[in-house]
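Fold this sequence, please.
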Amino acid sequence: MSDDKEPQSGSEFRASGVLAEKGVRITEQSSVDALSQRGYGSAENKVFMLAFYEALYLADKGMLEVKDEKGKSMDFKNLLRCYEQINENAWGNYLVYRDLRSRGYVAREGFGSEIDFRVYERGAYGKDTAAYLVMSVQEGAPVPIQDLTNAMLQCQSQKKELILAVMNRRGEIVYYSVAPLAFK
């Protein structure tokens, strides 16, 4: 599973990027290649972008330096504020992403309004499709049953397992597998 392990903060790998509307743009090709191999970022219109939660994770690990358009360095807190402008659950998504990565999983952006992440089995990124779809929820916050139903239907149609990532008030995440109940 060496391909899933993250370099430690003191490692030689360090990328730099520029703040963009929906994340952080990486231009140096060697950084693009290294990040891409580790399951980070995506290329759109020949531009390699890290999602905000990826950039926050890498910045926290000391693996990414982010600058704004004027070349001024941005710290973790300012980067988080930018993410909060486009996602009201930015902190929760980051914590779930960080937890999944720290457990050795590669988590990629989800799809639809309910699915936050696609998660690959350890060592399967680049070799197989995501095994799980993760929906993040806050403990005590109501979840519309239609959102849960839509997420479950999406998982069933793709033959994937739905995982609820429930963040408690202390920021700890507990994962629950969700499956339809069929009475005989």
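The chain has five helices and eleven strands. The mean pLDDT is 88.
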